[in-house]
Amino acid sequence: MFLAPVVWILTIAICVLFMGKFWWFPPPINAHGVAYDQQFALTLIVTGIIFFIAQMALGYAIFRYRSNGQPVEFSHGNNKLEALWTSAAAVLFVGLVLMGTKIWAGVHFEKAPADAVEIQVLAKQFAWAFRYAGPDGKYGRTDIKFINDANGNPFGIDESDPAGKDDIVNAALKVPVGKPILLVMRSRDVIHNFFVRELRMKQDLVPGMEIPFHFRTDKTGTFEIPCSELCGLGHSQMRSTMEVMSEADFEKWKKDQLAQK
Amino acid sequence: MSSAAAHTAHQAPTGFIRKYIFSLDHKVIGIQYWFLALFSVFIGMFLSLLMRFHVVFPDMKVGLFETLWPTGASGGVMTPELYLSLMTMHGTIMVFFVLTTAPQSGFGNSFLPIQIGAEDMAFPVLNMLSFWTTFIALIVMLAAFFVEGGAPLGGWTAYPPLSGLGAIAGPGQGMGQTLWVVSIAIFCGASLMGAINFIATTMDLRAKGMTFMRLPLTCWTWLVTAILGLLGFAVLLAAGILLLLDRSAGTSFFIPAGLVVNDQVMNHKGGSPLLWQHLFWFFGHPEVYIAILPGMGVTSQVLSVFARKPIFGYRAMVYAIMSIGFLGFVVWGHHMFMSGMSPYSSMAFSVLTMTIGVPSAIKTFNWIGTLWGGQIRFTTAMMFALGFVSLFISGGISGIFLGQPALDLYLHDTPFVVGHFHMIMGVAAIFGMFAGTFYWFPKMFGRMMHEGLGKLHFYLTFIGVYAIFTPMHFLGIAGNPRRYADFKDVEYMAGLMSVHEFMTYAAFFTAASQLIFVINLIWSWTKGPKAPANPWEATTLEWSVPSPPPFDNFGGVHPVVHHGPYEYSVPGAPKDYVMQTDPPLVPGTVKH
């Protein structure tokens, strides 16, 4: 019978591929990412053991009990075993969720610190726009009727509002390293999703909702933002980048932007 | 159970149309559903091959594409919108017209009445109507390919606002999306009719002695699936009608105010995109169990028959089926961890989701327990049932990752999810269908299938599906975004294209292997050896009647049931199996 060895070989091959990490996460860029990777590794070990034992046992039963004229061990079941594996599975599965709670709480239950750098994010078919309040710390008034993508005004900033004069709108996200960042995310048309692999986080941008999303990063670099919720025919082209800069570079970038206005 | 009136209404028809087209016979209707699913699965598979091809060779000119879609692939190069429409239709056809149709309506119709000792379903006319309504739904769905703008591109989940705005949101979002919603609404109606029929039949038409605890597990899964369908499709029908109104009557159930699409301000106010997601997944999650529960039933049945052993823990299996059915209705939020709904409710949905893993684990343990100490006969049906168990383990394990909101933060909307649900709801369920087909073909068509071809087909498919869907998990871990027509614009994807290529080759290999199944079907149907009444030496009622069974199933006899459904190798019994209708064994001689 080939089936038992086929099941065994597939099982071992899958375990080797997961242990070899040939296609894997990029390195994390903050403490959340490190905690995420630990929770993933823990889940992988627990489920990996269950996977290995269950598939190997299946293969063993297929091999050991192939019809050879042996007598059948007549049985309708075993209540003690049922109780044992029911409670073991319940404890293990729920336990894993509870262990990950802290990570989820850090992202969603905790509010962004008061000194966080706030950036508005606007998604639309099929581009990203990021808006900074400028030196006055205030966003200008916006209105649908001022929206003009061709003139670089996807937010619809009202030119007549002085608070909006120094607003910076950019197609790529620039953030300072080591500081808390608060993204206030909106969509103008359909649902989009903000995803940065290195942050280990993603969030839908839902029209009609304003969704806060906060994080900080400990490493500089440029990271890709591929739209991760189907948004229409240009979904696969809706890409931006997040550049994490030193604080000095970030301030200089903002100054340069204002100078160009 | 039956009255004289029911008997006179139940004479075998003689005309071709009443016998094979508008038949009231549950066995014919079951076969009709089975063929509808078979037709649909080949369309769905064809679409997936086109998608796999495009992902790997996005710029290649293919004459066939232009022939099939002169606008979507003008010049032979597939546009992103065409790719997305293929994806939408692949998912929709597979979920509704294959996974919902064959295991429940196909095999359930064919065998629920016989297994419980009834002459037919409770409402034969309703049964016929539900099939033909499903057929109309399929025609309307396929028509979406041929209207202006083509098929919709919003995915099988049809999230608004994308699905609610009309043609302004994309080429397929006009007439194509309207036909999609109409088809789904019709399908819901058909499924509701079927669900009522299944429930009434199981409740009312069981033969004398067929207590609930003597029902074959297949009947349990069909019953619970019918209840899930009744509650789930009712909600989807309502949601579909609301979406249709948003699209055509200017209402705003799902579309908020202030949208600007294509530089135009939309005239909608006050709707919520999340409302659709709640309604859709309130149906959508039970739908996963609608697809897989009957496969679990068939697998339990086949494992017990060919291990020549009673199913391990029958009662535990029944309770597991019930708890999966119940819990299936309270976990829908795990599809929405990233949707912007309250993060506190995510925690509740997450704990409930992990809880539903428990009855699934119970079933897996009991299947292995059934094999343990048995005397396994390796028929093709048995191989597919064993393959089901392996795939169910693999697909279930990845659910432990996705059920944690913390880990879903990264894995959501990556191929990790696609791999997970294809393993468990896609191919595991299809393995259940193959097991059912090889097991019941003799009863349905009166001929045996070719075992050699069957096993060859099994091995190639088993290895093939692992080769297609295992790599999806790695792509997900590497951050591959989902529902992308190509990966030319994401730099980090360059390093993952070799994995995509491997999957594409594996998909073509596996699809080619299905030709063996087609050949087997045609050969068996025309030239297969005539099937005896009980070729597998099985115990349930369908094997107590000729293959195929007579029109009223039992030739006017009312069967009386004396035994449970899985009495194999009972010590002291004359044979290694005791049929459910066999007379009671002499007390004292048999340990029961």
Summarize the structure in words:
- By secondary structure, chain A is α+β, with helices and mostly antiparallel strands.
- Helix content of chain A is 37%, strand content 21%.
- In chain A, 40% of the residues are buried.
- Chain A has a five-stranded mixed β-sheet.
- The model of chain A has no long low-confidence stretch (mean pLDDT 95).
- Chain B is 61% helix and 1% strand.
- Chain B is built from 17 helices and two strands.
- In chain B, helix 3 packs antiparallel against helix 6, helix 7 runs antiparallel to helix 8 and helix 10 runs parallel beside helix 12.
- Chain B starts with a helix and ends in a 65-residue tail after the last helix.
- At the A-B interface, helix 1, helix 2, helix 3 and strand 7 of A face helix 5, strand 1, helix 10, helix 11 and helix 12 of B.
